[in-house]
Amino acid sequence: MSVMPRPSILSVEPYVGGESKVPGVNRIIKLSSNEGAFGPPPGAVAAIAQASREAHRYPDGGATALREAIGARFGLDPARIVCGNGSDELLSMLIVAYGGEGTELIMSAHGFMMYDLTGRWAGCRVIKVPERNLTADVDGMLAAVGPRTRLMFLANPNNPTGSILLQSEVERLRRELRDDVLLVLDSAYAEYVTRPDYDPGVKLVDATPNTVMCRTFSKIFGMGGMRLGWCYAPPAIVDVLGRVRGPFNVNAAAMAAGIAALAEPGWVEMSVAHNTEQRGRLEAALTAAGLKVWPSEGNFSLVDFGSAERAKAADAHLRARGLIVRAMSGYGLPQTLRVTIGTAEENALVIDALVDFSRVA
Ligand SMILES: *Cc1c(COP(=O)(O)O)cnc(C)c1O
Questions:
Q1: Nearest CA to ligand 1 atom 11
Q2: For residue range 206-259, what is the model confidence (pLDDT) as tens digits?
Q3: What number does the ligand 1 atom closest to the CA of 89 have?
Q4: Is the CB of 218 under 6 A from ligand 1?
Q5: pLDDT tens-place string over residues 82-106
Q6: Is 88 a pocket residue for ligand 1 (Cβ < 6 Å)?
Q7: pLDDT digits over 43-54, tens only?
Q8: What single-letter DSSP state applies at residue 110?
Q9: Between residues 182 and 24, which one has the greater pLDDT?
Q10: Which domains does the chain have, with CATH numbers?
Q11: Ligand 1 atom having least distance to the Cα of 33
């Protein structure tokens, strides 16, 4: 007899992240994980170095200073903020606390993959609702709700499609969703959105007892390697997360870096202006070259090559030039590649390579 995990664990394939190497190519440009164009803010780098001197001390398990800094920056009550080892950890904690065996979790067909993977290992039945135009379908999501449904996840903007639901639609989703279904608004790309009719989730968390907003330092703040995320939640849900959270789930360097990143002058404004401009350039150039680029509100664009074979050929063409983007067959979109918006130079190299590709293939 051998030890066996719960059966639901074996139903899950391990997560495969964006690649960072191409054999035989020296200079690699990694545009496969939406990591922000500029690396970490300088103040965060200094804070990490400083924190390393105190590495023997346990961190503040309550993340008090960080929650206060987040609260001050976004105008939120620190008592309703919970920090995590990346927002992935918060998504897991919510699924373990509110889902599990015998429950259902609803997401959109091309929603963020971690909801599916985590939901399945936790034992939930995961229901993927078809999208319209690669955008979450509110009516379809509502129609999928059954007696066992306990969780609904919406990445807004969504990764990898880049699509967004405007505030009126998210409000309708919450209004028509049963009260005992927790709605998790994953706003990992919120800072990049420039539309006025968008809210990252704060309004709904304030107005309802069953909505949570998740945020991350991994994208616009360029700190994916530090693993830092946070959520804003009603008091009863904060209490539940406090019970399932590891006592020191966020490390000291990450907390110090997060506080410094929030204080970095002009960082978000600079990053958003850059992203909007460069994403526009990519869209315009590739569209002019006859490729389809899905509209995106994030720091990435989904480029549609019409067929899986052509997307594969485009991926090989980019790789030969050291450009690593993300193949999307795992998301059921094998005809597309997701390209992170990098620096102006990196973006120009992607544009050149794909315009060149569109001429030959
Ligand atoms: C990148 C990403 C996350 C994960 O963020 P971490 O804080 O690094 O765990 C969560 N949700 C979406 C939609 C993402 O794209």
A1: 188
A2: 999 999 999 999 999 999 999 999 999 999 999 999 999 999 999 999 999 999
A3: 9
A4: yes
A5: 999 999 999 999 999 999 999 999 9
A6: yes
A7: 999 999 999 999
A8: T
A9: 182
A10: 16-39+267-360 (3.90.1150.10), 42-263 (3.40.640.10)
A11: 1
* Probe target for ligand 1 pocket from 112, 220, 251, with the most ligand atoms within 8 Å of CB: 112
Alpha-carbon gap, residue 298 to 272, rounded angstroms: 10
Scan for tokens 């379809």, then name that residue.
Answer: 140
Q: In which element (H, E) is residue 173 found? A: helix 167-176
pLDDT at 45: 98
Phi, psi angle pair for 222, to nearest 5°: 60, 35
Ligand 1 geometric centre to CA of 219 (Å): 8
The verdict on the CB of residue 93 being under 6 Å from ligand 1 is no
Torsion sign across C-alpha atoms 327, 115, 162, 273: negative
CA distance 67 to 41: 19
Residue 81 pairs in a beta bridge with 232
Distance 209 CA to ligand 1 centre (A): 24
Ligand 1 centroid to residue 200 C-alpha, Å: 14
Residue indicated by tokens 């090559």: 305
Cβ of 155 below 6 Å from ligand 1: yes
Answer yes or no: is the C-beta of 229 below 6 A from any ligand 1 atom.
Answer: yes
Counting Cβ atoms within 10 Å, is residue 143 exposed (0-12), middle (13-18) or buried (19+)?
A: exposed
* DSSP state, residue 135: B
For the entire predicted model, the pTM comes to 0.96
Burial 226-255 (b: 16+ CB within 10 A, else e): bbbbbbbbbeebbebbeeebeeebbbbbbb
